[in-house]
Specification:
The protein is mainly β and 201 residues long. Helices cover 8% and strands 39% of the residues. The longest helix is centred in the middle third of the chain and has 10 residues, at 93-102. The protein is globular, with a radius of gyration of 16 Å. Mean pLDDT is 91; it is low at 1-8.
């Protein structure tokens, strides 16, 4: 699955979680400061993947107080960086959730989150629970600027593979037509960069 090969649901972004943002290392991808998720104890770095998709590197924000709940995507338990999740971009998220539930899959309740970019612009979006795993969480940006629109170009998502068993019901209910490889749950992205292709898992 790549940005140009989408069905009813678009790839919004890939989530690469790290235990320490100061030790991301050289992925060959130009990363831009995203912002802080106030109250969640995280902040992120972003890269444009082309086609309206982006790559998010997310980790603990040590300048924030410890959050009252676990950080999303299992960040608190991470011992090494990992491609943990992906988001599917939708319009009218409430309708998408209701239609999926009618087909036997519940994406979870819709919440609102926001962060302020480094330039002061406030981004606000609606989403289903941000859980790690091969099934996507849903995100609806509404009228807020999309993060990819302000990111430098240079990287390109070449391929995105999903691995896991018994995912068909959820993907079909969300209108996602993509081949799923059998095996332990996992995600693999191949990204073309100015330094060559890199594989992220």
């Amino acid at each position: 699955m790549v940005p140009g090969e989408r069905g009813a649901v678009l790839i919004d972004h890939l989530v690469y979680a790290v235990p320490d943002l100061s030790e991301v290392g050289d992925l060959g991808i130009e990363l831009t400061e995203g912002g802080r998720h106030v109250g969640r104890g995280t902040r992120n770095l972003l890269a444009n993947l082309g086609g309206g998709a982006y790559f998010e590197v997310i980790g603990p924000d040590r300048d924030q107080p410890e959050p009252g709940a676990p950080r999303p995507f299992g960040i608190d338990e991470l011992t090494a960086p990992k491609l943990v999740a992906w988001a599917a971009r939708v319009e009218d998220i409430d309708d998408v959730v209701e239609r999926a539930k009618a087909q036997g899959y519940d994406p979870g309740p819709v919440a609102v989150t926001s962060r302020r970019r480094a330039d002061g612009v406030l981004l606000e979006w609606r989403h289903t629970p941000m859980l790690a795993g091969p099934l996507p969480f849903l995100i609806d940006w509404g009228t807020t600027p999309h993060p990819a629109d302000s990111l430098p170009t240079g990287a390109e998502l070449v391929s995105f593979r999903i691995q896991g068993d018994e995912l068909g019901t959820g993907l079909q209910a969300l209108g996602i037509d993509v081949a799923v490889e059998s095996g332990p749950p996992g995600l693999t992205a191949t990204i073309r960069t100015p330094k060559g292709e890199v594989v992220i898992r």
